[in-house]
Design goal:
5-stranded parallel beta sheet, 5-stranded antiparallel beta sheet, 15 strands, about 30% strand
Length: about 250
């Protein structure tokens, strides 16, 4: 398996190459480019399976890669490398795109490559990059990428009715797509969506979209009925808070 590192900083390329060589045995060939244009040429010539791509580079941002590559050769997986930015990290996660925070650590590299290999052949990288670029440019998150058995389903926040914990998985119930089982725990979505005001966690097993609440039932300790008629428990310590929130919707 081939990998390509595109980064304008020579030291950063060298460090990453060493980490990949030491931690990712499935990658047998590592190529380097110091700018996006030369990196695109190597992609066309060498057809790497994984591209490590720095976002901030002179002349062309890594996000511009779609401008230089025809859709028919989008058969590789991208792992972005970036300095820490809370906003950018949220955009990556919502777009189901992996990233490495600089300075890069060995465990990060191994985990990101393992995930990238699973996506190969069904990566939908064109759609995911389009969503990422849109989120970063508009400074407004509207969708989330949900990896499932068929690939990645992009769903608008306003289409999500509720999320329910299912062990280390999460069942996401939507209006248009029905139920989508995602191989991430509920806590991942609780942390990721904590600043999106339409979502609320009334119970450790549920994250709900407040716009889809149909009814609050007081009996049996109190519970919520959603628009799809599913019932959602409310923790005792959340009841007063929940009632205050729904009265102000």
């Amino acid at each position: 398996m081939k990998a390509l590192i595109i980064d304008d900083e020579k030291k950063a390329r060298q460090v990453l190459q060493i980490l990949v060589e030491e931690n990712c045995p499935k990658i047998t060939t590592i190529l380097q480019a110091d700018n996006l244009i030369s990196g695109v040429e190597l992609i066309k010539q060498e057809a790497p399976s994984i591209v490590f791509l720095d976002i901030e580079m002179p002349e062309h941002s890594g996000l511009e890669i779609l401008n230089f590559i025809e859709k028919e050769i989008h058969n590789f997986e991208i792992i972005f490398t970036t300095a820490y930015s809370e906003y950018a990290i949220q955009a990556f996660q919502l777009s189901a795109i992996d990233y490495l925070l600089k300075p890069v650590r060995a465990s990060q590299v191994k985990d990101a490559v393992d995930k990238a290999i699973k996506f190969l052949g069904n990566s939908q990288i064109n759609k995911r990059l389009t969503e990422l670029k849109s989120s970063l440019e508009e400074a407004n998150f509207k969708k989330i990428g949900l990896p499932n058995s068929n690939g990645i389903k992009f769903v608008s926040f306003t289409d999500i009715i509720m999320l329910e914990a299912d062990g280390m998985y999460t069942n996401v119930t939507t209006q248009s797509e029905g139920d989508i089982l995602v191989s991430k725990p509920l806590k991942f979505f609780v942390d990721l969506l904590q600043n999106i005001k339409m979502f609320y966690r009334p119970h450790r097993s549920f994250l709900i979209n407040l716009a889809f609440i149909k009814e609050y039932i007081k009996k049996d300790g109190g519970y919520i009925v959603m628009e799809n008629d599913k019932t959602v428990s409310i923790s005792n310590d959340k009841k007063d808070e929940f009632l205050t929130i729904v009265q102000n919707i």
